[in-house]
Specification:
Elements: H1 2-5, E1 11-14, E2 17-20, H2 23-28, E3 35-46, E4 49-60, E5 66-70, H3 77-87, E6 90-92, E7 97-101, E8 103-109, H4 124-137, H5 142-158, E9 161-167, H6 172-185, E10 188-192, E11 194-195, H7 211-226, E12 236-242, H8 250-263, E13 266-271, H9 275-285, H10 289-295, E14 303-307, H11 313-322, E15 325-328, H12 330-336, H13 343-349, E16 352-355, H14 367-383, H15 391-394, H16 404-411, H17 413-419, E17 434-438, H18 456-465, E18 471-476, E19 479-480
Parallel strand pairs: 3-6, 8-9, 9-10, 10-12, 11-12, 12-13, 13-14, 14-15, 15-16
Antiparallel strand pairs: 1-2, 3-4, 4-5, 7-17, 17-18, 18-19
Helix pairs in contact: 5-6, 6-7, 7-8, 14-16, 16-18
Length: 484
């Protein structure tokens, strides 16, 4: 416990004063299991609805789930709070701190972290061959894999990402290293060994040797995750991961579809990401990515489709009917997709949508920055961007704009729904995965004014202005796993 205590620091600062929170809070806040947290904050139990929490009491069970929530309006609130305080079970957030559900990142290429922020100046198909495949091939070196994956998971936890859906590489041992890293550091994760065996699209030095190698390697990774002696709580889950249709042969796609039906695992892949990727599948099959994936048995309740910018109306209907989900990656779409995903249209249609950073196609590991990106892209899609046209001629797409409420929803509850997991909300039976935003952090970027900011306005400022220094704690299953 001593090493954990060193990870966490809370500080309250206001104007020119700075007061350290009593050490009792810092120590007990490391582990909230079998404790009660008194906190104010926000969550979005459904799209468009922000539930404002004001000094609620959240009981966290020994297993890290929320067993009860008590609001000040409840008749027994005062007696429960007094009893918890008397037994030492009550942990209270300091003034200026707000509790949010942990962020759920639906699209992370874990091996690409070393090139985050670089190699963004070429089209997708060039980017893969020139930069990305050579980098991913390096993960045959386990020392390199351990170092890179350790930095990635630490940084994501520090940014408030409590759950991540990871693409790994084709390498069995390196992918197992990512599994071990997430278990060791306490992040909730879904991890897939990438399948890619098409000799026409994958380099000789980096691909599965055959469909059998791709399928058997995926099965071996599933078994490793499910039988891991330190993963008895299922914090890490296996994912069937065809990279995307162009990189896979028909035999691999058919085999992975059969495996998905057999094991009930999550499935992740890219779908209609760019003109090139979308056109490749149309040329190969005469149907879109979505229909092709469905034919191969890869489109279901636990499928997450990254990007999906070029979904047709029929595609979107099919995704909704299969209860699959889209990982919306607003920042990377700007660089590689050649289009803006119609987020509002998908949400209005009832499609499950979560948010993804797409490390490293997107240049930021921060879900907050991707929330802002989602808002900005929606406004550009609705208003148009050609300054040579008048406003009416520019705005031809139709209603597309979202606000901070939708962005917050897809970054938290929407991601939980997409993954079919009890995360992203504060309600009994859900896992206590949460972050604390310290709006008074000395090096933070949130500035609140009592005379102007209250209620949802505080959340809007957090979404629009908070940064990594404002994230004071990251709990996964009730345990604070954030490094300083």
């Amino acid at each position: 416990m001593d090493s954990l205590e060193k990870r966490h620091r809370f500080q309250v600062s206001h104007l020119h004063t700075s007061v350290e929170i009593p050490i009792e809070f810092r120590n007990t806040a490391l582990d909230l299991r079998n404790k009660t947290l008194c906190a104010s904050g926000f969550h979005a139990p459904e799209r468009g609805k922000i539930d404002i929490l004001d000094d609620v009491l959240i009981d966290v069970s020994a297993g890290g789930t929320i067993s009860a929530i008590h609001r000040p309006s409840d008749p027994n609130y005062r007696s429960i709070r007094d009893a918890r305080e008397e037994t030492g079970e009550l942990v209270t957030l300091p003034a200026g701190s707000y509790l949010l559900p942990g962020f759920i990142d639906l699209h992370v290429h874990a091996p690409q972290y070393p090139q985050l922020g670089s190699a963004l100046d070429v089209p997708l198909e060039v980017w893969l061959q020139k930069y990305t495949f050579p980098l991913e091939a390096r993960y045959e070196d386990l020392a390199f894999a351990r170092r890179s994956y350790g930095l990635l998971v630490d940084d994501l936890l520090a940014n408030g990402t409590t759950t991540a859906l990871y693409f790994a590489t084709v390498h069995q041992d390196a992918t197992r290293t990512l599994v071990d890293t997430c278990i060791e550091k306490g992040q909730r994760a879904l991890i897939g060994k990438v399948s890619m065996d098409n000799v026409d699209e994958c380099p000789d030095y980096y691909r599965d040797a055959s469909p059998e190698a791709a399928i058997n390697g995926t099965r071996a990774l599933i078994d490793y995750v499910r039988t891991h002696p330190e993963n008895t709580d299922g914090r890490v889950l296996p994912v069937i991961t065809p990279r995307f249709i162009p990189s896979c042969t028909d035999a691999t796609l058919e085999g992975l579809g059969a495996l998905a039906k057999e094991c009930g695992c999550h499935v992740q892949t890219h779908c209609s990401e760019s003109d090139w990727a979308h056109g490749n599948v149309l040329s190969r099959y005469g149907v879109t990515d979505t229909e092709a994936l469905d034919r191969f048995g890869l489109l279901g309740r636990r499928t997450v489709l990254a990007h999906a910018n070029f979904l047709t109306t029929d595609d979107m209907d099919r995704v909704r009917e299969r209860e699959a989900a889209v990982a919306h990656c607003p920042l990377s779409n700007v660089y590689f997709a050649n289009a803006v995903f119609p987020l509002r249209a998908a949400l209005d249609k009832g499609v499950h949508v979560g948010l993804g950073t797409d490390i490293s196609g997107g240049p930021s590991a921060s879900m907050l920055e991707n929330c802002r990106g989602a808002i900005l892209m929606s406004r550009a899609l609705e208003s148009g961007v050609d300054p040579t046209l008048d406003s009416a001629a520019r705005a031809t797409f139709g209603p597309a704009q979202i606000d901070f409420r939708d962005a917050f929803y897809i970054a938290t509850a929407g991601g939980g729904v997409a993954l079919d997991l009890p995360v992203g909300q504060f309600r009994p039976g859900y896992l206590f995965d949460a972050i604390v935003i310290d709006t008074r952090a000395e090096k933070g970027s949130v500035r609140l004014f009592d005379e102007f900011d209250s209620g949802e306005q505080i959340l809007q400022k957090i979404i629009n202005t908070a940064s990594k220094p404002n994230i004071a704690a990251t709990w996964v299953g009730g345990l604070n796993v954030r490094l300083p």
